[in-house]
Amino acid sequence: MDHSRQIRMLIDSFYSIQRTRIMISNRIKMIVKDYDVEEEEASNLHEMVKIHLTEAEKNIEKRVRTFVRPLPIYKNWIEPEVKGVAELLAGGIIAGIEDISRFTYASELWTYCGLGLKAETLENGEIVHTIQKRKKGEKINYSPFLKTLCYKIGEQFIKTGNRGFYGKKYQHYKERELNKQERKGVKVLPQALLDKKPKKEKESGEYMSEGHVHNRARRKTAKLFLSHLHQVWRAMEGLPVPPPYHISHSTGTTHEYYPPPGWKAPVKWEENIKSSGAS
Asked: Which residues have C-beta within 8 Å of that of residue 130, sequence separation ≥ 6?
């Protein structure tokens, strides 16, 4: 079995073990409530299980550290520049991608990680683009392992807040999405309030949940990280680094360009960045 596959399996096991440990902690709280016992007594009943689970987590983390620390993309960029992506997540994303030369364009990497768009033809012949999801009877074209990790990475960026580059970008994307919906006349509400609206109102397009805004901003932040990872990793490997589409083509859009933290865009991009307005 190759090393990258081992790492993917170990990280998958790590999160399964972690979920089990959290379930046991929740179970202890339920025992305290349902059986009217002290928390210490309930904890003692599960002590050995918790010890073994914690030990297993530590062993996996140790093996992943051994794998990821010597890798140039980790030690020269992710570790010093990307706050929120520690060794476990970094090891998973690197092992999952494995060979960056397989992805000429960032959009190909987005698709492989489950963050791309899928073209669908409606009954009236209109073509719409939707996010990648599992659909019964259809073969998926992405890695569920990487899609899960990208979700976790997005959540970590949110937790970093103003302390990290991508935490700030999440806040920026969220604010921009809120402004966009306001301009369209859409009211953004907490899910609890939205659930109280009549079905007809909820489906009218006049409302959007705060969770929907959050998901959009997190997704855009994760895609930004992947595009940066693509650029820096390919540059480190001595591979061609194509500029983002809206820089290399005059799309007439107002997309912004953010260079990866700690990495400067190639000089040959500068003129295109200025002419495209993607500053």
From this structure: 117, 118, 120
Partners of residue 131 on adjacent β-strands:
117
SS3 269: helix
CB 223 within 8 A of CB 215: no
**CB neighbours (10 Å) of residue 235?**
17
- Digit-coded pLDDT (tens) for 67-115: 999 999 999 999 999 999 999 999 999 999 999 999 999 999 999 999 9
Other C-beta atoms lying within 10 Å of the C-beta of residue 159: 12
How far apart CA 47 and CA 16 sit, in angstroms, is: 19
pTM to 2 decimal places: 0.86
Q: Rounded to the nearest 10 degrees, how much is the dihedral formed by the CA atoms of 75, 78, 83, 87?
A: -70
Residue 31: what residue type? I
Bridge partners of residue 118, in order along the sequence: 130
Q: Which distant-in-sequence residues (6+ apart) come within 8 Å of 221 by Cβ?
A: 154, 157, 158, 166, 169, 170, 173
How open is the CA angle 179-169-149, to the nearest 5 degrees? 115
Nearest alpha-carbon partner for 215 in 279, 144, 155 = 155
Whether 154 contacts 214, CB under 8 Å: no
What gap in Å lies between CA 102 and CA 233, rounded to an integer? Answer: 12
